[in-house]
Amino acid sequence: MSKVQNRSTKNDPVLMELPAACAGEAAAVEFMEKQRWGDLPCCPLCGSIGVYQMKDAKTGERQANYRWRCRDCKQQYTVRKGTVFEDSRIELRHWCYAFWRASTSKKGVAALELHRQTGLSYKSCLFMLARIRFAMADSVVGPLSGDVEVDETYVGGKPRNPGVSKRGRGTKKQCVLAMVERGGKVKIKPIANVTAKTLKGAIRENIATTSTIYTDENSAYKGIGNEYAGGHHTTTHSKHEYVRGDVHSNTVEGFFSIVKRGLNGIYHAVSKEHLHRYLSEYEFRYNHRELEDGARTAAAIKASEGKRLTYRESATK
Ligand SMILES: [Zn+2]
Questions:
Q1: The whole model's pTM is what?
Q2: Which terminal residue of the chain has fewer beta carbons within 10 Å of its beta carbon, N or C?
């Protein structure tokens, strides 16, 4: 169920277009336009569909800057307008590649790897990935429901190469809470501590009261069952009890193991400040796991609409 890879690419129309989009700017622009607007291009400034591609007066070809113009608001714009790549000067073909990789690599993609593959600076790659993660954030609208497993864990830790980063940030473990619908969506977020107040607060905020809650025996969750129609069911890990009929947290533990393998293997040390963005990436891929790779990439591009991030927020890891 949680497999996001190993699928055939044969009948995936988006995937068939991606290699060309990653190789040339004209193809990249057309690819992004298609993902964003489909067959109905509209003005990102006023929403009008009275728009047209601007043409070079002499050649009749499309302008080299790929601008559009809106007949209603008279504004000019490109496909970048109102997206996470709006004020970036990085070529769109690189954005296509980064979206592709970030949407389809189970463990995630490292900026260093993108840097080697694209020839862009390491800093530019960090910047692109930070913005893509921002686009991927909030992939679940509304509360979770049904059978929901809740668990907390610690991620992060010391960098593998202590010489690289000597600053304190990024060296401490961070507590993370995940809530997973069996057969459905996941929400994962960093939390300040593991007190009853924090854990129950997160549950109330993110899970509908019609649900059934499953956790381990952590006493901080005690009493939450009174607020949920399906009650609260626990297994006693300390007594080596992991499954008792339907009572288990295997789904959430499976999700944690994907996150941990990724964070340890690809990202090494992620600072606390940016951890939530990395978690968004895992959350997004999990919540779109049923899609083909191409459709998942398209979903990430689509999610980048209406999201802006200042350079300061995204410039560093
Ligand atoms: Zn307009």
A1: 0.87
A2: N
Residues in a beta bridge with 70 = 51
Q: Residue 185: what residue type?
A: K
Neighbours of ion ligand 1 (CB under 5 A): 43, 45-46, 48, 70, 72-73
Cα gap 95→84, rounded to integer Å:
10
Q: Calculate how far, in angstroms, residue 70's C-alpha sits from the geometric centre of ligand 1.
A: 5
Q: Please, what is the end-to-end C-alpha distance for the chain in angstroms?
A: 31
Q: Which two tokens stand for residue 134?
A: 């921002």
pLDDT score for 107? 85
What is the per-residue pLDDT across 216-257, written as a single tens digit (0 to 9) for each?
989 999 999 999 999 999 988 777 777 788 888 999 999 999
Structure tokens at 43: 């003005």
From residue 88, give the alpha-carbon distance in Å to each of 41, 94, 95. Answer: 22, 11, 10
Residues contacting residue 137 through CB under 8 Å, at least 6 positions apart: 276, 277, 280, 283, 284, 307
DSSP-based three-state secondary structure for 293: helix
Q: Is the pLDDT of residue 94 over 70?
A: yes
DSSP 8-state symbol, 84: T
Q: How far apart are CA 104 and CA 110, in angstroms?
A: 13
Q: Residue 74 Cα, ligand 1 centroid: separation in angstroms?
A: 6
pLDDT at 142: 93
As a whole number of angstroms, the distance between CA 15 and CA 201 comes to 41
